[in-house]
């Protein structure tokens, strides 16, 4: 399967890169994540518990960063085992681009699943993966781009004309790409 997409994050690229490589931030943002351990500068070990329809499994996986060009891009090779439920493996390319004061995260992933996961209906898997990704980025934004206090927001509202304000809604993201590290592993394993 091929998965592509992009995500806009209202923070500088170096800050987004650092957050995506911080095991504590990744663990705190990925639903069902029991642990994210940085084994070396290029290798993460991830444990995610998830349920898809009648299947519930603990996925143990490795995610290796290759061809890293901080804070611009990297390629991630991932593999995870969910015991009798199945496995997932693949590769994702992630690119971070400056867009004004924000960062655009672009990704492209190829993945394959096996075992019982491959037998489950794709609609159910897509829905679980989409929800997991949305939840990840909502939590990620809260940690990386803290919401201003109400008094600061009120002052900014009176100083900014309504026509100049922009919505910062959470765009639908891609079922994978570890925001990249953990989401690729968690989301793609469920896809």
UniProtKB/TrEMBL annotation:
<keyword id="KW-0472">Membrane</keyword>
<keyword id="KW-0812">Transmembrane</keyword>
<feature type="transmembrane region" description="Helical">
    <location>
        <begin position="172"/>
        <end position="190"/>
    </location>
</feature>
<dbReference type="Pfam" id="PF06240">
    <property type="entry name" value="COXG"/>
</dbReference>
<dbReference type="InterPro" id="IPR023393">
    <property type="entry name" value="START-like_dom_sf"/>
</dbReference>
<dbReference type="InterPro" id="IPR010419">
    <property type="entry name" value="CO_DH_gsu"/>
</dbReference>
<protein>
    <submittedName>
        <fullName>Carbon monoxide dehydrogenase</fullName>
    </submittedName>
</protein>
<keyword id="KW-1133">Transmembrane helix</keyword>
């Amino acid at each position: 399967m091929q998965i592509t997409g992009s995500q806009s994050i209202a923070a500088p690229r170096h800050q987004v890169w650092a957050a995506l490589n911080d095991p504590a931030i990744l663990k705190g943002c990925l639903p069902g994540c029991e642990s994210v351990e940085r084994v070396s500068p290029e290798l993460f070990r991830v444990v995610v518990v998830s349920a898809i329809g009648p299947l519930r499994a603990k996925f143990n996986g490795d995610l290796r960063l290759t061809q890293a060009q901080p804070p611009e891009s990297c390629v991630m090779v991932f593999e995870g085992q969910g015991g009798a439920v199945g496995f997932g493996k693949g590769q994702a390319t992630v690119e971070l681009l400056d867009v004004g004061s924000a960062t655009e995260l672009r990704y492209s992933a190829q993945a394959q699943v096996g075992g019982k996961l491959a037998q489950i209906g794709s609609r159910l898997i897509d829905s679980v993966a989409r929800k997991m990704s949305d939840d990840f980025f909502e939590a990620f934004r809260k940690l990386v781009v803290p919401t201003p206090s109400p008094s600061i927001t009120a002052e900014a509202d009176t100083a900014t004309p309504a026509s100049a304000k922009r919505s910062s809604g959470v765009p639908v993201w891609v079922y994978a790409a570890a925001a990249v590290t953990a989401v690729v592993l968690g989301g793609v394993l469920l896809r």
